[in-house]
Amino acid sequence: MRIGIVQASSTNSALSLTEQALASGAQLVLLPEKWVKTLDEVPLSEFQRLALKYTAYVIPGAFEDGVSVISPIIDDKGKIRGVAKKVHLFGSERERLFPGTSLTVFSYNGIKFGIAICYDVDFPETVRSLVKKGVEVLLVPSKIDKEGLPIWREYLKVRALENRIAVINSNALDLPNYPGHSVALLPYKKGNVVDTMTAGELGEEEGFMVVDVDPLSYFYLRASRLKEIVDVEVNEIQS
Fold first, then answer.
1. What's this model's pTM, rounded to 2 decimal places?
2. N or C of the chain: less Cβ packing under 10 Å?
3. Is the peptide bond before 141 cis (omega within 30 degrees of 0)?
4. 3-class SS at 176?
5. Domain 2-228 superfamily per CATH
6. E-state strands within the chain
7. Cα–Cα distance measured from residue 231 to residue 239, given in angstroms and rounded to the nearest whole number
8. Using the 8-state DSSP alphabet, how is residue 119 labeled?
9. Quick one: pLDDT band at residue 114, thresholds 50, 70, 90?
10. 170, 109, 110: which is closest to 138 by C-alpha?
11. Sorted alphabetically, which Pfam families does this protein's record hold (predicted)?
């Protein structure tokens, strides 16, 4: 599967870069969280047109719709197949929005995808819930600032490692505070241990990249990890 990651800061560049990624062979394209402020500013019909034109999926990012933070899923027929909602609201979002109460999984070209929006990735049980439903590739639209970027990368890497899945992140670009640096991480066997490799990374500028993600390359790593997961009870010793 060829996955495109777009870093854009305007509707014009978002559409242009998305089309460039699709024309370069991307079968699915992911954009960041809140690259525009609200869902009303997103040219959804244009993204739908591109998805239909190139017979590809487009995840145009994640946005506030006045109720929640949602991530529309546009399928290869140009239809909005569904939406994912942000479960863990961050900071001032909690003052004006409602959190999602469920997670979203979808299949495309035989691959099962899950969406975790920004702060959701900080919580391992959220991603683990997706993995238990068979997710092989995690799509993460985010808006992480320069100060938080180093620890954010640690979260992404740990989620990839502990679940043996690919993590595809598109991070917002709004300099100087939001530096982009979107990244694609893949698990792989390194001797006797499992590590992650960086399949691609963007810098601090508008742009796109297309990375190859083959879940079969880490199928046995993921299957083995799923067998090792144990749901345990916690017993408290009374004093």
1. 0.97
2. C
3. no
4. coil
5. Carbon-nitrogen hydrolase (3.60.110.10)
6. 2-7, 28-30, 33-38, 57-59, 62-64, 69-74, 80-85, 104-108, 111-115, 137-142, 166-171, 173-174, 178-179, 183-190, 193-201, 207-212
7. 26
8. G
9. very high
10. 170
11. CN_hydrolase (PF00795)
